[in-house]
Amino acid sequence: MTTSPSPAERTSTPEADTAADEATAGSGETSLRTAAVVYNPIKVDLKAIRASVARHAGDAGWGPTRYYETSKEDPGGGITRQALADGAEMVIAAGGDGTVRAVAEALRGSDASIGLVPAGTGNLLARNLSLSLDRLDDSIATAFRGRDRAIDLGVVDIERENGDRETKVFVVMAGVGLDAKMLANTNDTLKKRVGWLAYVDAIARALRDDNRIDVRYQLDDGERKSMRAHTIIVGNCGLLPANIMLLPDAAVDDGIFDIVALRPEGLIGWVQIWIKIVWENGVLRRSHVGRRIMAANSREVRTLRYNKGKKLVVRLDSPQDFEIDGDSVGKAVALRAVVDPGALTVRVPEHS
């Protein structure tokens, strides 16, 4: 990514100033709503975004739009807070899942909404909200002409091996164990070339090791329990790329988490997980006939343990890889995840 410009450079442009003069002169209004675009310059075409914004913003009653570029030092959180300080009532996140998460984290607790211009490999939040994934103009139109929808956020406190603690927000899911190790093993160069196929290589490398972890956990205010698993995932919504429905009952605005622990024993265990997640959840569940087949034949398997709750506390037997919304965020020895209900307002199509 490029080096982030100074606040003065990135919060006002000649185009924005001109647009402000034209909007005020043309409408007689002095209090038009203000939008900002936080964009990853590596993943989006800024010229195309500007052209689309020019087609939709003014006609939808919005004033001039300001543009803020992410950088390696600031993947979106700092400049989103700057955009809010500059008066933005909507921040459009144009980039991958990391950009969306950084913007959402900064918007938490504010009255501003988030618009989505998906431009990554996963596009997890847009995918779960059934938003357009590859039509830029539709995404911009939804941001300026759509309606608000409140969704939940996940807030996770992370304890590191050295005792350091930090708090992060996730919009889709957070996981510890094999899925996080897989993400940590993903070759970034291969990912740029072949997208999600790069994870096949990462999974193969991750499965070479014994990935079982011993955990102690507490769900809500229940009793403390112990468990051995390969992966534990806490989800706000459940759909992954390739039409994989990991958490079929998850809802983005129900105020609770859906949680799954993967506990396969050998090849048969992995086959059971594949059948449950890919075939039953991803295929059969999507049709009336398929659901009837599931009702007659489906059964719970020991390799997958599902649960629900508003708070999950996990302590690990050793430092383990941890991921948030598809990004590896290092290793953790303990986690505490809670739901923040309705904490993020997302722009969705008017008639969705």
Automatic annotation (TrEMBL):
Composition bias, Low complexity: 11-29
Keywords: ATP-binding, Kinase, Lipid biosynthesis, Lipid metabolism, Nucleotide-binding, Phospholipid biosynthesis, Phospholipid metabolism, Transferase
Biased composition (Polar residues): 1-10
Entry GO MF terms: ATP binding; kinase activity
Region (Disordered) location: 1-29
InterPro entries found in the cross-reference section: ATP-NAD_kinase_N (IPR017438), Diacylglycerol_kinase_cat_dom (IPR001206), Lipid_Phosphate_FormReg (IPR050187), NAD/diacylglycerol_kinase_sf (IPR016064), YegS/DAGK_C (IPR045540)
Pfam families from the UniProt entry: DAGK_cat, YegS_C
A GO biological-process term: phospholipid biosynthetic process
PROSITE patterns the record matches: DAGK
Cofactor: Mg(2+)
Domain DAGKc: 30-160
Recorded family membership: Belongs to the diacylglycerol/lipid kinase family.
Protein name: Diacylglycerol kinase family enzyme
Species in which this protein is naturally found: Frigoribacterium faeni
